[in-house]
Amino acid sequence: MNAEPTIATAGTAHHFSEPCPIPPNQVTAASPKNSSPKDAKKQADEILREQAKITAAIPKNEVLCRVTKKGDQKLSKGVHVPGKGDLRYSWRDTVMIDRRAANELEERGYVEIEDAAA
What stretch of H or E contains 7? Predict the structure, then answer.
């Protein structure tokens, strides 16, 4: 038996080997006709607001650290420059780092925790 898999949609069956046509009057979210630069900016701003709310709800557990000579150019800033590599912190730079990561980096000698409450 050589039956091809099919998908039934709206009372019709479509074979996987055939394209499933979208009616010209049906507008999809991915359609370029449905979006404008203003809509994209509005959507991006909304996403950023939602992310800010989520970030604000997360308890801050960061401490102030100073990069040591041993940690010079070993801690990434999280920014990658094509053709150059990651941007890194230099000796004597101060940075806010998660408490657990800061403790591990301090044990290795890459940073000194300067926060009095640490």
Answer: strand 6-9
